[in-house]
Amino acid sequence: MGDALRELETIWRDLSAHIAHSSPFLSWDFSYEWWRHFVRNAAGSATGYFEIVVGTDPQGRVVAIAPFYAERTMGNERFGITLQPFGRGHAIRTMTDEPVALYRAGCEAAAESAVKTYIASRCASSSWDIAVVRGVRSTAEDGRRFSLGDAVGLVQSSSTIEGTMSVSLAPWDRFKDRLSKSMRDNLAYYPRKLSREVGDWRLVTARTSDEIAQAVEALIDLHRSRSRSNRGIPHADHIAGNVEAGFLRAWMQRMAERRQASIVMLEIRGAVVAAQAFLEAPGCVSVYYSGYDEHWYDYSPLTIITAEMIKNAAARDVGRMDFPPGTTPWKCRWGTERPQSTTETSFYSLRPGALARGVMRRLHQRLQERT
């Protein structure tokens, strides 16, 4: 079953090099491991079924790749099936910052429209009641937009989803000059505080496959520890089970083999007390999962680690750092720009069975709201 995905590796890698906003979460490596751990293993409410839409232009160029999988709606098949993009789900930790949909730069809207048209055309013969299509960033205006007139037996609704937050990188001294005075003070204060009150400490960066293999285990333990901490802002445990941990190990190994993964660790007296993962795509580095021992919370270890990665990335002429979606203070203090939004369109089948299951879903949701 994975042969269909493996056969797309070459064209997938080519298209991912020609999208407007590069991201490791749109890579073939991410999608393949995500399929292997979450779809094939039917994690959460996934059924194991998947399909991949590939769109070409009149010249034969691949302009769109959109992988989908079938998920039991609300975790129960009696409520129907949702056709979801890879990286989106209701009953699993998706381990990504953005659902997967690749559209070639310069023809994004037309490519998105073609994917929507294809998905809508399968409504009558498909097993799904709802299909969700990830759209393009709000800046893309070329091509025609999909309209409901392109499909029969469907209704659609669109929503705007907040995308990743980004900051342009520059050599460290210039980068710091753009930050607020309080942030500049913090960048000097926390390392001095560590040295004054603790003594020996150092930052260690894992990059090779062997180094990443060891560092991932420390990261998993510290991430889980952070989620149990009562200090600071509460954090969810995104690596709660064996499936998530297995995915993280496998994907980080793939990225390490391509020199596109780093885990920066803070060591104090020889023990790793904080770790942060970073992933790279052409021109950008993405901030990924992190964790720390709550005993070192007052030293802001992740601030120290992120500063180190910014220095390193800028020295290598990486132009952008991406933070996860959502406007939160810890991202804004690094001078991030307002997040670019993306669209997400849901198609609802009007087949009699789908309508009946839709009524059941709505009744179930209302009951849950009352309890």
What does the model show?
The protein is α+β, with helices and mostly antiparallel strands and 371 residues long. The chain contains eleven helices and 13 strands. The protein has helices at residues 3-6, 9-16, 28-39, 108-121, 172-177, 181-197, 209-228, 242-257, 301-315, 329-332, 352-370, and strands at 46-56, 62-72, 81-85, 102-103, 130-137, 154-162, 165-168, 201-206, 261-268, 271-281, 284-292, 320-323, 341-349. The strands form two sheets. Strands 1, 2, 3, 4, 5, 6 and 13 form a seven-stranded mixed β-sheet that branches. A six-stranded mixed β-sheet has the order 7-12-11-10-9-8, with helices on both faces. A hairpin with an 8-residue loop joins β2 and β3 (81-85). α3 (28-39) packs antiparallel against α8 (242-257) and α7 (209-228) runs antiparallel to α8. The chain is globular and about 70 Å long.
